[in-house]
Write a structure and sequence with these properties.
single chain; alpha+beta; 8 strands; globular; AA1-like domain-containing protein; signal
Length: about 120
């Protein structure tokens, strides 16, 4: 009896630890993270896939590449198109992806806005 109570307590604590470690992303959003030219990077953030430009500034820090993960519908990743603009709204390019991908920013530049659409 005593050992089963200990096992139940350990299992409960393990469940709490694993649940708190999981990030809570919006499953209907693309997930973006910037890698700066100095090698540091941001945590992933949600970008709505509504086709509207969203301000996700790199704070005028030059970005060397962008990690993009499309929405996951529970069975597969959804085809997503994302475009990136400089703070001045100058286009930095676009990418169409179906799986998590790291995309180089060539030439490296500061990012001001991100627009993503998915099917």
């Amino acid at each position: 009896m005593r050992s089963s109570a200990i096992i139940a307590a350990v299992a409960s604590l393990a469940g709490l630890a694993s649940a708190s470690a999981l990030p809570k992303f919006d499953q209907h959003a693309a997930h973006i993270a910037y890698t700066y030219t100095n090698g540091t990077y941001t945590k992933p953030f949600d970008v709505p896939t509504n086709g509207q430009a969203q301000k996700f500034s790199s704070n005028n820090i030059v970005v060397s590449d962008v990690f993009v993960s499309p929405p996951f519908d529970g069975r597969r990743y959804v085809l997503t198109q994302c475009s990136f603009q400089a703070p001045s709204n100058k286009s930095l390019g676009a990418v169409s992806i179906r799986k998590p991908t790291t995309v180089p920013v060539n030439p490296p530049a500061a990012i001001g806005y991100v627009t993503c659409k998915s099917n």
